[in-house]
Amino acid sequence: MAIAQHKLGSGFGAHSTAGDVLTGHDMSGKNVLITGGYSGLGLEATRALARAGAHVIVPARRPGVASEALAGIPGTEVRELDLADPGSIRAFAETFLETGRTLDILIGNAGVMAYPDTLVGPGWEAHLAINHLGHYVLVNHLRPALLMPDARVVSVASSGHFLSDIRWDDPHFRHGYDHWLAYGQSKTANALFAVHLNTLGVRAFAVHPGSILTPLQRRIPHAQQIAQGWISSDGQHADGFKTPAQGAATAVWAATSPLLDSYGGAYCQDCDLAEPATTDDMLIGGVKPWALDPGSAARLWTLSAELTGLDTFSGRLPVDS
C-alpha cells in the first residue's frame, strides 16, 4: 500500500539549509555514508553532518579530488568507490565491513545527468547504472552494517521522475536514446528503490532536493541552460532555484527527523513530505503516482536483482561468490 503523501508541518521549508535542520541534533558517535559527498549537495550534507558531530564516510571515484574538497572538515573519511563498477562497490563494502562498524545513515546522493548514450558494466544504460543500480548494489553489500533498528537510507531522487516511469520493455534504451528520459527513469528508480527497501526492513526515504545548479549539470551547454530558463544570459540563477546548502537540507532532514519514524518509503520535498503532483511543472514538484507504486517498486527490485545477480535480502549472493 502506497504511503499517503501529505504535509507534516515540519517547521522547515524550501529556504531551510542542511545546518538549520540539524539544529539541536547531536550526531556524535553516528556513522554516515554519503555517496558524492565531496561535491555540490553532497558536500553541503557532509559539512552539516560532520559539524553536528557525525563521522562521515565519503566514497569517491576520484579519492584525491575528494580529499582536497574535504580538507579542513574534521570527522570525514574518503574511500575509493566507482558506482559504475560492481566489483569496485563490492571491494569497498568488504573493506568497510571488515572494520566492524555499523552505519546509522546512508545517503545515496551521487549521480549523473544528461549523460551521452553510454553503456557501462555488462551493458547497462549509464543513468540507470550509476544513479540506481550502483546504489542498489552498495546497499545490498552493506546490509550487515544497516541492520540497526534506527538505520536510515535516503535516496536522492528529483522531480526529474516526472519525465519517465520505468521503461520495462527497454530500460537500457536499445531502441532510441534520449538523455532526459534516461535521467527521468533513473530518478523514478531512486524513488521506487526507497519504497521497496523500506518493506524489507530498512527504513528508507526518497527526496527531491529542489532545483539547484551544481556540477551535476556540467554536461548541459550554457546556451541550453539559458533556453530552459535555468539561468539568465548574464549567468544569474532563475527564481525558485536553491543554494546548495538549501538543496542538501531535505536529504539531511529525511536522514534525521523523528517526524518520519512512521513514514518509511515516503517521498520528501522542502523538508517535509511531498504532496501528490497536480501539474507537470517540475519547479513546483510533488510526486507522481508511478514513483510510489509498491507493485512497481517490487518489480524494479526483481529486475535489479536479475541485472546484478545480487539480492542479499533474499539470500541471493553475487554470481561469482
Structural class: alpha/beta
Q: Which ranges are low-confidence, i.e. pLDDT below 50, for 5 or more consecutive residues?
A: 214-223, 229-233
Proportion of beta-strand residues: 5-15%
Helix content: 25-40%
Break the fold down into its secondary structure elements and pairings.
Elements: H1 18-21, E1 31-35, H2 40-51, E2 55-60, H3 63-70, E3 76-80, H4 86-98, E4 105-108, E5 119-120, E6 124-125, H5 126-141, E7 152-156, H6 179-199, E8 203-208, H7 222-227, H8 244-247, H9 249-256, E9 267-269, E10 272-273, H10 294-308
Parallel strand pairs: 1-2, 1-4, 2-3, 4-7, 7-8, 8-9
Antiparallel strand pairs: 5-6, 9-10
Helix pairs in contact: 4-5, 5-6, 6-10
Which properties best describe this structure?
alpha/beta, Rossmann fold, two-stranded antiparallel sheet, 10 helices, 10 strands, globular
Please provide a written account of the structure:
- The radius of gyration is 18 Å and the shape is globular.
- It has one domain: Rossmann fold (3-Layer(aba) Sandwich).
- Helix 5 (126-141) packs parallel to helix 6 (179-199) and helix 6 (179-199) crosses helix 10.
- Residues 214-223 and 229-233 have low confidence and may be disordered.
- The chain is of the alpha/beta class.
- The chain is 33% helix and 12% strand.
- Strands 3-2-1-4-7-8-9-10 form an eight-stranded mixed beta sheet, sandwiched between helices. A two-stranded antiparallel ribbon has the order 5-6.
